[in-house]
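Thread: Modeling a multi-component assembly for a lab meeting

Hi all, long-time lurker, first post. My supervisor asked me to bring a structural picture of a complex we are working on to next week's group meeting, and I have zero experience with this. I have the sequence lines for every component (247 residues in total). Could someone generate the structure of the whole assembly? Inputs are pasted exactly as I received them:
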Amino acid sequence: MAAPSPLVTDTSLATPPRTGTESGAEDGVLSRTLQVCEIFRSIQGEGLDAGLPCVFVRLAGCNLRCTYCDTPYAWERDDGREMPVRDIIAEVASYATNLVEVTGGEPLLQPTVYPLMRALVDRGYRVLLETSGHENAGNVPDEVVRIIDVKTPGSGMSHGSYAVNLKSLRPTDQIKFVITGRADYDWAKQHVLEYDLLGRVAAVFFGSAHGILSPRELAGWILADRLAVRMHLQVHKYIWGPDTRGV
Ligand code: SF4
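Re: Modeling a multi-component assembly
Sure thing. I ran the full set together rather than chain by chain. Output:
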């Protein structure tokens, strides 16, 4: 009988980060700084990569105040620690995991997020960016998977310029709606149909706001409407509890 194949237990083993000397121009980019709330390794709780080990780079500062926000500690930019891109990359590399999510707060509020994403992509990481969609995400590198969290009325933040991103979607994008009740569900369904989201992006997720709407109720609405969206649960909240920080 043939010996079983060794198990690959972490995607970091498949694509180790690139190392090497920096050119002068790259050195300048890597010296630019960002206000960072926290960097940690956890299980990706959402999206098409749910369940995989992932390093999260949470940038500080947000211009929204969603009613159900679970990271209010990331609202104020000045509460973050100033870190050069070089040090962020070094800390990410220390976790030896090739899936990285840049999140916030709202990460697109800090211009240096663009060279950070580029540097991570160039080092072989699979990079996810989670954004509220209220900032124009058109300059995000093509290799980065954009996860756009479209704010429903129940968030209190459904106003604003989010539609700019819905008109210029990429096939690799993932769209997320956090649903707080039936009105949000109807609003999200209308957006799925109006913008033909199911035919334009990699996945559309409907998730129930944790502790506000039961997943069972949301699942019932999706099934009754035969809506081909993906139901998603925030896996990390079931593993560690809804209020645990840095997981
Ligand atoms: S956009 Fe995100 S970080 Fe900002 S208030 Fe809303 S849920 Fe919180």
